[in-house]
Amino acid sequence: MRSQWLTLGLGFLILGSVWLTSTQISTLGAGCAGDRGPAQAPVEELSDVSRSRTVHLCICSDDPDFRPAVVAIRSAVSSSPQSHRFVFHFVTTLELSTRFLNVAKLQLPGIRVEVHADEELQQAIQSRILFRKGAGRKVLASPFNFAPFYLPHFLLASSQTFHTQTERLIYFDADIVILGDLAQLFDMDMQGKVCAAVPYCHQRLKTYINFDVLHSLGHEGIDPDSCIANRGLLLIDVQVWSAMKITESIENWLDVYRASDVDLWVGGMSQPPWLLAMNGNYTRLSDDWNCNSLGRHSMIPAEAAVLRNLGFEDTHLQELHVEPVANGLNPYVVLCSSTGKILHYNGAMKPWLLDSDTISVPVCTLPESLRAPQADQSKLMLEPVLAASRALVARGCDRSGSASQLAKGATTSTVTAQKSAAGELPQASAQATSTDPDVHACSTAHCAAQ
């Protein structure tokens, strides 16, 4: 029981930290719009699809630590007035499926969850993966890093709610906290595209793809300067995805990578082949729907240049304890968390992986001029929060002023991650039932209510 409360407690604490961070950065991210490239589709203006259909939300993971997945699911429910439409699909190994089923019953009451495992498909995916040193972390070679490209296959084999006629699904990484309404995202006009994702123009396709190798293999028509997209959140049109054979295209790129004597791509495993297969054919979402890079240790020069353009001067960086290093700035400074609907801890410094001794580390360092007036402090309190964190929350930031002043109020992703224990997750949405959870363990052999 103690471990269960610790797990829930840590999950609760992450969202409080996220809320605190989001009140401190203001609208700096808006200054990046000119550097993004193609315009983003405004979700709130394009909701022309029926609001009654089931919203399928998917996570793929073989991580035995279920805390981030539980937090992602709970935060999605608590952030949506339409959570009664949600069905969560957790795709994992056969061994972990039973464990997650038990966790879901205990920690996700009133939430519809289906747990899927397919060993044959898992092995088929694994057979296509070749890990090379230039790819980065070995964990990226997991078949569950590629499983999002096979979601219809996993779900059709065992789901009680997902069918061949199902039009859409949303995939998201487990290392996120959701502050926006995913039903609103689900209902948007996708403009006939395969999927919707958030572009990231601080990095270009040539950052990952070796175009000399690509051209030598006879592949043309791909722009090396096009923005990449982070697939930590994907809204997928299942029918268009299937018709355009995106999964098959990704498999073809994996085969090309395996057959090449020289690395076709670096710095990733599943992201590069997906980017090549999509080749820009996706609906652009705003930064709000995937505010990423939380927990990253440093910013590359191109990313650091954006800070300079927004008014960050050396004195501001010093106040944030951000230091110039050979490859940019350390640690990473997050610009979009003030408006983020999804906060993505895709850096190596995950809040739930830190020792509890780090709780004493300040969540942010703020210039005196940006601290909220005493009269406004009560408005910035998030109830309930840990007593040890109340003073930090009360310090909140003044969200007005010039770009230079706003730069002073930014927080760093590393420090944010260190202070993940700042408050509790909101209670589940009123739409969620108070009865036992509707949880199902699914495999190719069975899909029985537990």
Order of helices and strands: HEHEHEHHEEHEHHEHHHEHHEEEHHHEE
> What number of domains?
2
Mean pLDDT: 75
Radius of gyration: 22 Å
CATH class of the largest domain: Alpha Beta
N-to-C span: 21 Å
What's the total count of β strands?
A: 13
Oligomeric assembly: single chain
CATH architecture descriptor text of the largest domain: Alpha-Beta Complex
The biggest sheet amounts to: 9 strands, mixed
Name the overall outline.
globular
Beta-strand percent range = 5-15%
At CATH level 3, the topology of the largest domain is Spore Coat Polysaccharide Biosynthesis Protein SpsA, Chain A
Number of helices: 16
State the helicity in percent bands: 25-40%
What structural category arises from helix and sheet content?
Answer: alpha/beta
Ranges where pLDDT stays below 50 over 5 or more residues in a row are 12-38, 44-49, 358-437, 442-450
Please state how the strands of the largest beta sheet are arranged side by side.
8-6-7-4-1-2-3-12-13
